[in-house]
Amino acid sequence: MKSQEIRQTFLDFFKERGHTVIPSASLVPENDPTVLFTTAGMHPLVPYLLGQAHPSGSKRLASVQKCVRTQDIEDVGDARHLTFFEMLGNWSLGDYFKQDSIRWSWEFLTEKLHLDPSKIYVTVFAGDQDAPRDEESIALWKECFAAKGITAEVDKPLAEGGRIFAMAKDSNWWGPAGTTGPCGPDTEIYYDVDDEWLNQTLPDGMPDFESSRLLEIWNNVFMQYNKLEDGSFVPLAQQNVDTGMGLERIAQILQSEAQKKRLTIFEIDTLKPIADEIKKVVPFVDVDTISGEQESLRIITDHIRTSVMMIADGVYPSNKDRGYILRRLLRRAILHSQLEDASWVAPVVEVTTSIYKEQYPSIAELQDDITKAIGEEVAKFQKTIAQGKKEIAKRESLTGKDAFDLYQSYGFPLELTKEYALSKGVTIDEAEFETEFRRHQDLSRTASSGQFKSGLADHSDMSVRYHTATHLLHQSLRQILGDTVQQKGSNITPERLRFDFSWPEKMTFDQLKAVEDLVNEKIAAGLPVTVETMSPDAAHAAGALGFFGHKYGDSVTVYTMGDFSKEICTGPHVQNTKEVGKFHIAKEEAVSAGVRRIKATVE
Ligand code: ATP
Ligand code: MG
Fold first, then answer.
1. What's the gap in Å between 248 CA and the centre of ligand 2?
2. How far is CA 554 from CA 54, 59, 82, 181, 533, in A?
3. Of 205 and 554, which is predicted with more confidence?
4. Which ligand 1 atom minimizes the distance to the CA of 171?
5. How far is residue 133's CA from residue 121's CA, in Å, rounded to a whole number?
6. Domains of the chain, first to last
7. How confident is the model over 119-129, as pLDDT tens digits?
8. Rounded to the nearest whole angstrom, what is the distance from the C-alpha of residue 87 to the centroid of ligand 2?
9. Is the CB–ligand 1 distance for residue 218 below 6 Å?
10. What is the atom index within ligand 1 of the atom nearest the CA of 216?
11. Which residues of 70-95 are buried (b: 16+ CB within 10 A; e: fewer)?
12. Which of 47, 149, 354, 365 is 20 to 30 A from 310 (CA-CA)?
């Protein structure tokens, strides 16, 4: 089955079961400044999983969502991980629960996709001091297997019929997204991708879910508990289901079976043409010093595909945030390609866009822009490489610190420094180089862990308060400076808010004071915060600020704060502006020509 048929079969299956099909959201999360990219189908749906009514009015949703997981970058090169993939998902917002969810997953896999039930293994939550073992899921799985004549034992060696395996919280529990809120057990579905596996004796007869024999295909999360401030778990009023299945992995299984040979994820219909094109244009000279030829081909294929998807959603290479991630992906691909010109970019982009043009039409429209952006980055990086090489050639030996400085100031990659220095007979202090490298890695990992970790919105109390404060600030700026002020960006952490807006010059002290006072006045006024769903036209007519792009069919959510502020937003917000606390502007500065930034705190 081709990817397009899998997408359609999935959406039709859930449509027939009362689900509203929603379009993929952008890879750039809207109204969620806490993460860089959309990492799962549930990500754009967080407000609805937290209890807000979905604008479609439906309690059952299904989608095919574009996802980027930069945290999986080190895994790219194996047979199953990509940095960009599409996630098939179905959701129940306080509607059906474990029974329908598990039965439908089983039915879809075995009846619609005709997967072999004897190759399916599942995991469930084992239970701990917070919540009991998920007996309900176990019973449901037993029934599913039994209907196919398979006895499914729990936690037994495979030889004794083991099928269902109970796992601890670190693998079979989701959430909460912040420190408190909805969370619960999940059940994961795995497929045996090697026919001979069962004939091999595994050490203790128990399956290894981290091994390459078992491919995780689908995860069903059951939001069943509410974690409270005191750390206790109580049953949740609105119980939700959130599922996610990797399209590429399903394609990998189905296309492997059709071709009667075990394929890697890079050999499926949406990836192989890209890899083939890259193979044509990239000669692979001397790749061994960086990694094997095959791994390089996979890395280039993955990274270029992800870059195309990111640029199509409006991300461009830069030194910050998303743009920086994109730049890193492109540089890594360029490094692995070992090519000194950019002639390969156009054909590779063309193949990629042609694969996705039906599913994501904007990709085809933007093909020239994408080619240009990648081509420019290639040229820029090649200059960097040339510069770094010149620096190295000037010296007789390099300390680890020198190598690191080359990296810091020229962006000259450490692998290349090492390789090039050695080829020129320049000696290099490798041990020190490794120490510097590791220190740098640790630093950047710590710095970015917040944004890359789970890829889920932070809905802690503080963040919610900052979210509301951001709306009040936006409106106050417009009131004090005028209606030309437009939001250009926003970022919230539990410690502060950051708001970027269009304004040509430095704000005066008096203007800042007036804005701060106005925000505090609206907080003190205790304005009620209300939410409504309406059509974009109605929102526009009501004077709501925000984006008017159509999302989720034809309606948007609008948050109103008394008679002061009205903005399109997915929330969440406090219920009364009083809850925001005292607002203080800590800093006003330039971001770029015509754009200013305010950092503010609340107490
Ligand atoms: P894994 O342990 O294999 O990395 P995961 O636990 O990160 O998977 P989930 O977060 O549950 O996966 O995502 C749901 C589904 O999305 C997975 O079951 C899998 O089919 C798919 N998936 C997750 N990460 C990737 C990836 N990097 N590339 C391709 N598909 C993926
Ligand atoms: Mg993962």
1. 14
2. 12, 16, 33, 29, 10
3. 205
4. 6
5. 18
6. 3-259 (3.30.930.10), 398-454 (no CATH), 461-602 (3.30.980.10)
7. 999 999 999 99
8. 13
9. yes
10. 18
11. bbbbeebbebbbbbbbbbbbbbbbbb
12. 47
